[in-house]
Amino acid sequence: MKLPTLYIEGPALWASTLPGWEVARAAFRGEGAPVDPPAKRPSPQVLPPAERRRAPDSVAIALEVAAAAVAASGRRAEDLPCVFASAHGDLAINDYMCATLASQPTMLSPTKFHNSVHNAAVGYWTIATGCQAASNSVSAFTSSFAAGLLEAAIECATDDEAVLLTGFDVQSVGPLASAVISDGMLAAALVLAPSATPQTVASLDWELVRGAPAPSLRSDAARALARNGLADALPLFEALARGEATTLDMPLSGHQTLRLRLAPTR
């Protein structure tokens, strides 16, 4: 059965060395360089000032790219179903939780506790934007962005409505860093739509195939981010930046792969 063609709008990306899609796009194309010194974490304007200060890094970068993708798509955040994907959630907060519970459990911060859950970022997003459409939080270790993209594609095709996809991961710290490798901060987002619009940047044909290896990263800027938990998103965003027709394999497991066929529309 042929799956319906979908359309990508508003790609957005943020990393300390690539703070915004225009910087990332130029670096992925070999037409620009990562920023030096690295940028400080973003301050997403979708949040009220008090929430902006209290939000952890994971929420800050996720909401930054989600807002950028929605703005570039020309859609209304409150109307968009959304899927948020993260391999690890917020490892720094989880490290704090474990250390505090082991040493001074009565001193555990309620604010940090509610920021420790995996769906914290999508919760902040839906509250801040007033979105009452369906929302979902997905985790699949090193295939988390691929799993989120598959979920968003199924929702978009089934319900015949646009879906916001946002992925994010942050630095692993403390004892967790010996078991979980994730360097720096990286977030990426896009809107999947069931039909083309003036904001469409590429069409997307997709299918599930037997296990296949992930493509190699093509730019130094992307390779520098390859140890982040969201690194499986990078080949797709390199392809979108280059504006080339291509086929990409995004492994979902050792036995199954999400195969994408991209064709730029502008």
Molecular structure report:
It holds the Pfam family Ketoacyl-synt_2. It is a single chain. This protein is of the alpha+beta class. It has one domain: Peroxisomal Thiolase, Chain A, domain 1 (3-Layer(aba) Sandwich). Helix content is 33%, strand content 22%. The chain contains nine helices and eight strands. It has helices at 21-28, 49-54, 57-73, 91-103, 110-115, 120-129, 144-159, 220-223, 234-242; strands at 6-15, 82-85, 135-138, 163-169, 186-193, 200-210, 246-251, 256-264. The protein has an eight-stranded mixed β-sheet, with helices on both faces. β7 and β8 form a beta hairpin. The longest helix has 17 residues, at 57-73.
Distinctive features:
Peroxisomal Thiolase, Chain A, domain 1; alpha+beta; Ketoacyl_synth_N
